[in-house]
Amino acid sequence: MKAAPLILAATLLGNVALVGVVLVRQSAAPAKTSGANSIAPSPSPALAAPDGSRTLAQLCASDDTQALIQYLRENNIPPDIIRSVARARLDKEFAPRRAALEDPPRPYWRRNSKLPQSKPDPNRLPEKLALETEYQAALKDLTAGLPLDRSASVRREFGDLPDAKITQLQAINKDYADLRSKLRADMQGVTLPGDQAQLALLAKEQRADLAKVLTPGELRDYDLRSSPLAAQIQTQIQFFNATESEYTALYDAQATVDDQTAGQNLPADELARLRDAAAQAALSPERYAEYKIATSDSYRNVRNLADRLNLPKTTIAQVITTQNETTAQAAQIRNDTTLAPADRDAQLATLAQNARQQLTTALGKQGMKQYQDLPDSDWLKQLKPKPPQQ
Question: Which of 130, 336, 368, 373 has its CA 20 to 30 A from that of 265?
Answer without folding.
Answer: 336
